[in-house]
Amino acid sequence: MAQKPSIPKGTRDFSPIEVSKRNYIFSIIKNNFERYGYQPIETPSFENSETLMGKYGEEGDRLIFKILNSGNYLDKVAAEELQDVNYKKLTAKISEKALRYDLTVPFARYVVQHQNDIEFPFKRYQMQPVWRADRPQKGRFREFYQCDADVVGSKSLWQEIELVQLYDAVFSDLGLQGATIKINNRKILSGIAEVIGAKDKLIDFTVALDKLDKIGEDGVKKEMTEKGISAQAIEKVQPLFHFTGSTGEKIQKLKTLLADSQEGLKGIEELEFICNHIATLGLRDSAFDLDVTLARGLNYYTGAIFEVAAPPTVSMGSIGGGGRYDDLTGIFGLKDMSGVGISFGLDRIYLVLEELNLFPETVINSTRALFINYGEKEALYAMQAIEKLRRSGLKVELYPDAIKVGKQFAYADKRNIPYAVIVGETEMNQNQFALKNLSTGEQTLVDFDGLQSRLS
Fold first, then answer.
1. What is the dihedral of CA 162, 165, 166, 170, to 10 degrees?
2. What would the pLDDT profile of 251-281 be if each residue is shown by its tens digit?
């Protein structure tokens, strides 16, 4: 007996209903992207390894899927190198390409490569799959979609404000209330590292701090200690573990803490501008919160950092994130091209909407009516009507085989098709159709115009 096929862990097949629900989310995100002036682009699913490696920090680099070179990928490897077991050195010789880890770095590469054809500031959106060699768990997959919106070519903080509004608009249109848009600033984190005497450990400090909600205060302190951050520095950062109060109160505390850090004070100034204007403009259905522990372990953020938490009634990690990167394109040779962007985690948003039962019933409505097949003549008569109905925008279909009528009705029932159209010799002679409501059992004789009207 043949072994049952399977798919790799962390990937999924999607049923017609699941695809319909995903497309519903896509359409709302896309409509809002375009409403805010963002233009669509697409980039390849894989990039040259040098484009991706070194852009996400050590943890990120480990999660990049490498693609083996075509043919004999060991051609360039000497026998002694195989014995050396230096995987980093070996990987560079047997793999020159990798699946994209996110959409931001490929976007930076795109901007540099096409800079002469772009009008700056350039607002782009991109909705494509990405891949990460992560450990699969609830809400975390190895293949998943990101839906990104970025602006490059402007340092204006009004862009950050607009992106917060964009998050709120999408969640409002999805009927998702209670999501929290969290904000911090990388300059503030750098300032904190500076005043506690751990400036040389900035990345280790921020990566550990970002895990506060996952591993708790003791876990963060343990990780900081393991990374070589002194006990005195950890003691100075203690207030961050219980940083409460209104946004204004938090900002005042930060001003006191970072009084001796110019970079930290600059971060507070940027944060205050964004927070004050969001408070004035207001949001529809989302909360907005300053979270000083928010770090996001990516090396390229330089200013504002965003992360969106699902409503507290749902057990789920972040459903979106992003931030300001002042010189991401600089790594590809284009200096002083500031950018800021956000990402929607489609797969996690899907799980949240499913858990909260927020998908409208109309999302899964597909075929409106099934024409019952009684034979060749009847099928031809039905197909003439079907073609006209489809041209008018209605979703209808003919059962392909003239099998027992009961099986055809059972098929319609399993597909949740609400109507059956019955065409026998009597209906054909009268140039009419018998329309049956499969929920109520009611059956009505109608002409084509009546059929079209009832199915619309």
1. 180
2. 999 998 899 899 999 999 999 999 999 999 9
Contact present, 408 and 371 (Cβ < 8 Å): no
Long-range contacts (CB closer than 8 Å, 24 or more residues apart) made by 314-317: 314/352, 314/355, 314/356, 315/138, 316/138, 316/139, 316/348, 316/351, 316/352, 316/355, 317/139, 317/140, 317/348
CATH number at residue 343: 3.30.930.10
In this structure, are 113 and 153 located in the same domain? yes
Q: How many secondary structure helices (H) and strands (E) does the chain include? A: 18, 16
Pair 149, 212 in one domain: yes
Helices (H), 36-129: 49-52, 57-62, 79-84, 87-94, 104-113
- 3 state SS of 85: coil
Q: Which of 157, 129, 67 is nearest to 338 (CA)?
A: 157
Residue ending a domain, choose from 323, 355, 387: 355
Tokens, residue 313: 């009634």
Q: pLDDT tens across 108-129, in order?
A: 999 999 999 999 999 999 999 9
CB 323 within 8 A of CB 210: no
182 with 231, same domain?
yes
Collapsed DSSP state (helix, strand, coil) of residue 440: coil
- Same domain for 326 and 414, yes or no, is no
State the pLDDT at residue 1: 64
> Can you tell me whether residue 323 is helix, strand or coil?
strand
Q: Which two tokens stand for residue 163?
A: 């992106």
The answer to whether the bond into 121 is cis (omega within 30° of 0) is: yes
Number of domains in the chain: 2
